[in-house]
Amino acid sequence: MISEGDPVPKFEANDANGAKVKSTDFKGKKHVIYFYPKDFTPGCTTEADEFSKDYKKFQKQDIEVIGVSPDDVDSHKKFCDKMKIEFPLLADIDKDISQKFGVWGKKKFMGREYMGVMRSTFLVNEKGKIFKIYPKVKPAGHSKQVLEDFTNLN
Fold it and tell me: How far, in Å, CA of 49 to CA of 72, rounded?
């Protein structure tokens, strides 16, 4: 995983509408990049719902929110429509962004090992530097914690 103080890795992916989104689009802006395993799963739905409900609060502080998962554009579109998500969800189908951030790796569930996204969040300042990392996120209450930490740490 990358470390606090590191610059944001360069990335490019399509959002839920098929538009190309690049890391350079957020240059000079504060932003949250959160990685989650899969659209429509219970934890991911909770996390997306909370970020959606708090999105206006993030915008008031000029903070952009970006979600990333290995799901494709169609899945993200359905998820955004159902959950009323206004911020970009990026389709990291080839796991390139997840690997650059170091969140793609071996996971265990019910005794089974498999490769997947480790739920993680990165806070980025206007200089493009990561100033806070949450390596093991619990979805409930995470959005409020991120907003509070952004306010206190930056």
Answer: 19
Would you say residue 74 lies in a domain?
A: yes
Return the amino acid letter for 22. Answer: K
Looking at the domain assignment, is residue 97 inside a domain?
yes
| Catalytic residue flag (residue 80) | no
Q: Which of 21, 32, 44, 68 is catalytic?
A: 44
Q: What is the pLDDT of residue 110?
A: 81
Q: Which domain holds residue 43?
A: 12-153
Give the number of domains in the chain: 1
The CATH number that applies at residue 80 is 3.40.30.10
Q: Between 142-153 and 42-60, two packed helices, what is the crossing angle to 10 degrees?
A: 30
The residue length of the chain stands at 154
Residues of the chain with pLDDT under 50: none
pLDDT in tens, 38-59: 999 888 899 999 999 999 999 9
Question: Does residue 5 sit within a domain?
Answer: no
pTM listed for this prediction = 0.94
